Amino acid sequence: MFVWVIVFNILLFVIFLYHRYPYFLQDVQYIINIFLVRYRLSKVREKNSTILDRFLESVKRHPNKPFILFEDESYSYLDADHQSNKVARVLLQHTDIKKGDIVAVFSGNQPFFLWIWLGLVKIGCSAAFLNNNMRSKSLLHCFSCSGANVLIAGEEFKEAVEEILPTLTEQNVTVFILADQCTTAGMESFTDKTSQASPEPIPADLRSNVTLLSPAVYIYTSGTTGLPKAAVLTHMKLQALSYRTFGVRFTDIFYLYLPLYHSAGFYAFIGSIERGSTIALRSKFSASHFWDDCRKFNVTVIQYIGETLRYLCNTPKKPNERSHRVRIAIGNGVRADVWREFLKRFGDISVKEVYASTEGNVGILNYAGKIGAVGRVNFLHKWIFPYAIIKYDIVREEPLRNSDGFCIKAKTGEAGLLVTQITQKAPFAGYARDLKQTEKKKLHDVFVKGDQYFNTGDLLWIDEENFIHFHDRIGDTFRWKGENVSTNEVSDILTMMPCVLEANVYGVTVPGHEGRAGMAAVRVKEGEQFDCTGTFRHVSSYLPAYARPRFIRIQDSLAVTGTFKHMKVRLVEEGFNPDGISDDLYLLDEKDKTYVPLTQMLYDSVLSGLIKL
What percent of the chain has pLDDT over 90? Predict the structure, then answer.
């Protein structure tokens, strides 16, 4: 009888915990994972162990386990070791490369991309991953700011390299093309040389210079609001990434389709090494082939970023779309409505939404799975990696400070700037050869004299249940009619329209007006026409007057980065003048409650003040 009383009381306690603290078990599990990761990192520091060492351990433990699945080929851990040894030997024999040097990689997703990085680390060097969408001056800018003296480019990018070859030649840069032969003067073939090189192990003393604080790779920011900057990722930062917290196992197969030159794609590669798992690599994202690939490779873990899950939800429904083994989706930037639709269509997949940035020093994970949140406040995580959401003045583009000169924490439900403290455990390595931009990302004297925080550039807010939500980027939030407008929010509302496939919202300057007026570049669904009156009714129902887009621009396609972030700089510069824009433009007409074609006469009337915005 006494035993039953104890069992009954335990059940009552569990029920109480569940109702009072519904996320208690997830919180406890996350704390356990934090302890396990911190323990692993303490061992890493003791041994000065890099992710390469972890890879070499896997080669010894399971040499024949598939590491990279690409198209119809399978490469084991031992294959990857041998191929990267060959790359290292070619670089040592055919260049003047030495410890600490940087090699720029300009390639699409392919196994050789990975062999190159592993080979470079084996000889104590690092890589700069160039965005393969860059051309001409932008490409030269990215190459130059890396400090590299060797460039390895994919064969498909040969013409892009030839365009800047005269400058590279002047700078005595060694240029390789991933091909068996190359007849262009100033370029050398690469893959033929690796096929002849020895696969024998590279002596460890060649990387004796490498410490956990050494640069492992340079990855460029997207450049959505300016020229890209090369963020420095150290070996310690790569080791700090643990897919254990996402629930990834040794037996998992990770589907990697995002560009390897971006941190999201490269981190999937690093995370798979850390777990000792397998990667199914694809050259680029394809919504129509996505689930077929998952079935072909028996994928269990997928990644997403930005709009990719929405692209999947927009594909035609198929009877077998729930026929797959995927159990985890890791990424960031999925809207709540897309999240729900994704689960409804494709099954019970655990979505692990993350907040992080390439150069940032702290990441946040929504480990509890609340739809729409990017993270959850956990006392232990926040104690180890201090962060805060502070009040921010978007007009002056600076944090608000009190009479003592210190920043003010935002209230629950209030959007503010996320800042993360720069500490020994959470360092900020900055940008390569750009001290000015590195310092620009730091905030000083935030809460006490002498402290330093990393400025994420993002506005977030915390709800009543301690979940963290993304609001907008600082550059994307603009002010109109004395109010702050979130481009992210307006975009979400516009894409709820039946005729709208996607929308890119931004602010444009209007002479004689304070702030910036809302404008949206819109892509209409195939077979549909832009619904002027319906769109007006829709934005009027869901958005306050100041947030409704004053101008609409219809485009056949919206310019995005390699990770599907909308490009805004050019659109902002072009404004809303129909004389210089070939796309159809529309103006919000509050009198007739519709959007009307923006003619040159209407444009002139806006500028003269005859039409009030």
Answer: 71
